[in-house]
Specification:
53% helix, alpha/beta, 4-stranded mixed β-sheet, binds iron/sulfur cluster, Rossmann fold, 22 helices, 10 strands
Length: 470
């Protein structure tokens, strides 16, 4: 997988200086997080459902190879074609061959992270095939030459005024300053409707593959997914191998968790189930259905101690609560998969050395695991990745960590260090209420944010005093 993840330190510094983007990311993530929390509070059986979902995904991973074969057999019996792609190049080539064999020139596509991962759109465009993104967020990303910054809300980093300017410049919309989001959506709908009607093939990703019936399930909140997969004569879907689950019973659990954690809904507006091309008795629908099963590094993760990362439903909840993601946004990660789970998946797909900073882009506060609807142990995996990447860290970092570990193992030193830090910074903390400027190398922190003042009394001495009184 192509990635610029090793530019994370520089990209994060630039992102931290962009107040407009930080504001937009903060507003969007807070809005969704509030909705999700409210929904969970209203569900007394949420904890049980969550563990049921975790069990379903982990069981599915255990039987992954056999289920993929079962899926292929079922889909073939339904009249569909399964194609196996080892990597991005193979997936793109397979799609190009399907297009060439059927003289397909104009495609419409619904949202799919797998196609982002293999960079399908530029590949097809390079071979003279037009492909239009039809998810509203992805459409805005495409016409503005941008990249998605979130796995569920691709354009959440852009304030509404900016999107209005994009509509004016790229689509010729006669917009006023007070043009509403609804008016912009209606304009985009009209524009895209023409594209749907003239497309000769449709593309999609997929949220689940159901092994027992050979079905593809796409859940969305926009009707574009249904139009892309049912209106054109050929439908091609690209889905990662980890999306497979054995039964509809498991789906019933997981679909609730995905809708709730992704957008705070009981169920998404659309749940599209595709079993193959149109049957003889069907009046319409595509006459061909091709499903590309994408590996692209997933087998590597499957064979490693990070297998659990493949249980991800791609709901985005861990991104929304992550204090690092909320400050730097998705682009800084240099990968299609950003945020806490992206910091595990990207090194897994692209190689640890190609994403060596990402496992360190976390405060290890645990909010990601808490938010995850299938309880993926993200902080544990980040720690293990840090262990694996120790030797790749710069010397000053390794020495600093060794010093920190030494101080933590020697209570007197730790205590003295805490007292010294409090004394040295006391004046600044009293004047400004926080530490605005720390000396090097700690100034990297205060360049972008305040450091909270040290407590005048350490927890250790407070505890001692308390124990003596009692
Ligand atoms: S790791 Fe969990 S919370 Fe994060 S995107 Fe995946 S399913 Fe959602």
């Amino acid at each position: 997988m192509e990635t610029t993840a090793n530019k994370f330190p520089q990209a994060a510094t630039i992102a931290l200086g962009n107040i407009a983007v930080r504001g937009a990311v903060e507003r969007s993530t807070r809005y969704v997080t509030d909705r999700v929390s409210q929904m969970r509070e209203e569900m007394p059986h949420y904890a049980a459902l969550r563990q049921q979902g975790r069990g379903a995904k982990l069981r599915a991973l255990q039987q992954l190879p056999a289920m993929l074969e079962q899926f292929e057999a079922r889909l073939s019996a339904n009249g569909g074609h399964t194609h196996w792609a080892r990597d991005a190049a193979e997936a793109n080539q397979l799609i190009l061959e399907i297009c060439r064999a059927n003289h397909l020139k104009r495609g419409v596509k619904s949202k799919s992270m797998a196609t982002e991962e293999i960079e399908l759109v530029p590949f097809l465009e390079g071979h003279g095939i037009e492909i239009i993104e039809t998810d509203l967020g992805e459409f805005i990303v495409q016409i503005s030459g941008d990249r998605p910054s979130h796995i569920v809300m691709p354009v959440m980093h852009r304030p509404q005024e900016e999107i209005l300017n994009i509509f004016r410049e790229k689509l010729g919309m006669e917009a006023r300053a007070e043009t509403t989001a609804e008016e912009m959506t209606a304009f985009a709908r009209q524009y895209l409707r023409e594209k749907f009607l003239s497309a000769d093939f449709g593309m999609s990703g997929g949220n689940f593959l159901i092994a027992e019936t050979g079905s593809l399930v796409i859940i969305t909140n926009e009707g574009n997914g249904r139009l892309s997969t049912s209106l054109p004569d050929v439908h091609i879907a690209v889905v990662g191998i980890e999306k497979i689950i054995p039964t509809w019973r498991d789906f019933a659990t997981l679909v609730q968790l995905l809708a709730m954690s992704g957008a705070g809904q009981t169920l998404t507006v659309y749940v599209n189930i595709i079993n193959g091309p149109k049957a003889e008795s069907d009046e319409d629908g595509p006459s061909q259905f091709h499903l590309i099963l994408l590996d692209n590094g997933r087998s590597q993760i499957y064979a490693s101690e990070y297998r659990e990362a493949l249980a991800c439903l791609r709901c985005g909840a861990c991104l929304n609560v992550c204090p690092v993601y909320r400050n730097v946004g998705g682009h800084a990660y240099g990968s299609v998969y950003s945020g806490p789970i992206g910091s595990v998946v990207t090194p897994g797909l692209a190689g640890k050395e190609a994403a060596q900073y990402l496992p360190f882009a976390s405060s290890l506060c645990g909010a990601c695991q808490q938010a995850c609807p299938v309880d993926i142990h993200i902080p544990d995996m980040l720690l293990r990745l840090r262990r694996d990447l120790q030797s790749a860290q710069p010397t000053h970092w390794r020495l600093g960590m060794k010093g920190w570990a030494f101080a933590n193992r020697h209570p007197l030193l730790f205590h003295a260090g805490g007292q010294l830090a409090e004394r040295v910074t006391r004046g600044q903390a009293r004047r400004a209420g926080a530490l605005k400027q720390l000396p090097p190398p700690f100034d990297r922190w205060t360049e972008q944010r305040d450091f909270p003042p040290f407590a005048p009394q350490s927890f250790r001495s407070w505890w001692q005093e308390r124990s003596q009184k009692n």
